[in-house]
User: What shape does this take?
Amino acid sequence: MPETVIVTQNLVKRYQNFVAVDGIDFEVAAGESFGLLGPNGAGKSTTMRMIGAVSTRTSGDLSVLGLDPDRYGPEIRAQLGVVPQENNLDLELKVRENLLVYGRYFGLPRARVARRADELLEFAQLEDKATAKVDDLSGGMKRRLTIARALINDPRLLLLDEPTTGLDPQARHILWDRLFRLKEQGTTLLLTTHYMDEAEQLCDRLVVIDQGRIMAEGSPAELIRRYSSREVLEVRFGSTQNAEAAGRLHGYGERIDVLPDRILVYSTSGEKELERMTAAGLRPITSLVRRSSLEDVFLRLTGRNLIE
Amino acid sequence: MSSREESERIHSAALASAVAAAARTRRYGSWYVAEHRFRVMGTYAQTVLFTAIGSPLVYLYAMGVGLASLVDGNVGANALTGVSYLVFLAPALLASSAIAVASEEFTYPIMLGLKWNPTFFGMNASAIQPGQVINGLVISVAARMLLTCAIYYVFMLVFGAVPGALGIVAVLVALLTGLSFGVLVMAYTITLKDDTGQLAMVQRLIVLPMTLFSGTFFPLTLLPPYLQWIGWISPLWHGTELSRVFAYGMSEPLWLSLVHVLYLTALLAIGWIWCRRLTVRRLNK
Assistant: This one.
């Protein structure tokens, strides 16, 4: 049986009158890539900080790498790599220097840190930028440097809070590729995201979180199977006719969702539903058949979109 | 082996390796933070050296020599606690130079690390603890302060402003003065969520008046009695008076010298502990 690196049981974090995390339970095994998927304000980052041993839980049980963060903060953090949502690289220092000072925080000898810094600059594809100012890096490069910094102590568990938020598509793909390599090497990843494609790309398993609670748990494929159909047909009738058309779509697919601008028909075959629609004299302005995604799962579970 | 024994075995193995991983940081973490800060100071080393050399030169010359000729000419040499104005003023300027370093290093750089470029949060995410962040900051600023005061002292010697045999002790007094004031300023800075002019206010409404009312340029006793209390609570006054005792043997009852030491040490201890507590709250949300 693989070792369990994170166990949360009825974990709660309360700030005065606001409950950020409202009793969540999950376990992450060594080598697994686990995601917390949810909209902004769902409690993902708060959960991440408690696991990262920089925020004290209000109640419940939490074990990280077999230890209680309340008692063994430095011992846990010594074995973590943390990529925070907000970059906190030292802008007054150069790229390589950021790795050098950070490595020392884990008590590593200078020579070893220097060696590791060079390896990581290569991994992060930043060798040419070693003596550049951090401020001169692009958003994607800063993110890669933050990941390199998080790996300086060869962590057993890497925490990534919204790793690609704010990056352009190309930068995201480069980053995903780097994270995928880490996953292949067996690094345990815990990441939060509100991007479905990111969760589908990187996570073996995930929990969908909304308002501090877990709505569902499983692999991306399992969740889609359980909460959505194989395909989704998206049809638009124009904003004025949307509601009226929706009334005539009863009995189509396994289920339909009426959004302000479009109607989603969940079905094993989107094409067949569209043919039926056309035969019945319904003429959508646009139509699109696509694979079901985690976005549909989220919509089903909460009745809301992930990015609102 | 029962499952309970098995889980205890796994737990103790995990604990042992975790304790080993964090052991060096638990012991030396404050120094690692200081190391980081020294590297950052290296990026403005020229400013550090320029002010450390420039200010004693300018102040000792303008006031200790220029203003002194006016003062000594009018009130007569040796009217101020029995020595020339230069000798009277120099230990006070030395203590003020430590205050200047403190009010520079314990304001904006702290705000930077907590908010504008939140590197302290980065430190806290590693094996470093919030208290060690504070210790590292104090260590690094103390080093800069010591360098600044040592250079000041050399200029004081060059200007012939230190007749006392124990003059060198004034450098340590200045360090104590600067740090005791500095940790209080740092504590205040840590409580700020944002800087909307408060830090500039510290300069204008605290540091500057404190310099004027701490017996720096004239003895505190020349002030009207209802203003003298400013000096009594001012770390700069305590530091300046103690500096004078060592720099030229200013006569003062021993108990008063002890009060200076105790007062400054108490401020340093209280401020330091306060900073550590505030930082725990700020970093561990």
In short: The mean pLDDT of chain A is 91. Residues 253 and 272 of chain A are 9 Å apart (CA to CA). Chain A touches chain B through 36 residues (CB under 8 Å).
